[in-house]
Amino acid sequence: MELTQLDYFLTVARLQHMTKASEALSITQPALSHAISKLETELGVPLFDRKGRNVQVNRYGSMFAKRVERAIQEITKGKQEIDEWSNPETGVIGIAYLNILGADLLPKLVRDYQLKHPQVRFELTQGNYELIYNQLDNGYSDLMITSERPATDNYEWRLIKSLPLYAVVSNTHRLADRASLSLTELTGEPFVGLDKNCGLKSSLLTRFQHMGFTLTATYDAEDLTTVAGFVAAGLGVSVLPRSEGLAVKGMAWLPIEEEGWIWEVGLYWRKDRYQSPASKRFIDYIESSSFQA
């Protein structure tokens, strides 16, 4: 059963005349008759009582027409929704992002983009790295904003922002008054680490290994906000990006003397997945200099 057949059927049912219906549909009368006959054969019942070129919908046709009209209406609504969601000016952009970004970067990014495109809507999901990665990989979000670059060529990455990483200690720590420090000075200190699902963990481990020493984690927190809370409470030291979401009282931020301690935040998406015009325009926006910081 084809959508075209159903459209033909409703037109004939409305006009009650094969020739008039064929003219309205811009097809030949024999082609229309064949389509209706094929539909009746598929359904196993006649839909019309015929009197020459005049036709009258019978009880089977009346019952079927009610259902078809509803189906066509739903299909029309579906097409309109797809157009609205994908349209670059009125569409919906699904973004999954790390929890920490919800306090600062994400609200500003959404605000600035909607100033340019006020009718665009965002469907946002926040969580740890594993959650948002699954959200993207399973197709529930179009894009992901994270601090971890793709590990394979199946994904694209565009840098949004780079932030310096700081050594963080409590205000009462012996190093709290230092203007800066080398991370080697934290050797032997209780270290507040990160759970494997936190996007920053692998980056920190790589940098520590490059420096040739290991910090033993006394605690492993699930998110950066918890790390900040433990450090402020004097339960250890750590390394964090300085952002509004981590502005916890009782903590000292110390610049790191070694080079390369930068936290990158970027846009991430699958190469093999369809991106709507709305999502593509957002990617173009990120690729421009409009939000670089």
UniProtKB/TrEMBL annotation:
Keyword NADP: no
Keywords from the UniProt entry: DNA-binding, Transcription, Transcription regulation
Residue stretches making up the HTH lysR-type domain: 1-58
Tree of life domain: Bacteria
CDD domains, per database record: PBP2_GltC_like (cd08434)
Signal peptide: none
Keyword DNA-binding: yes
InterPro entries: HTH-type_LysR_regulators, LysR_HTH_N, LysR_subst-bd, WH-like_DNA-bd_sf, WH_DNA-bd_sf
Family classification: Belongs to the LysR transcriptional regulatory family.
UniProt name for this protein: LysR family transcriptional regulator
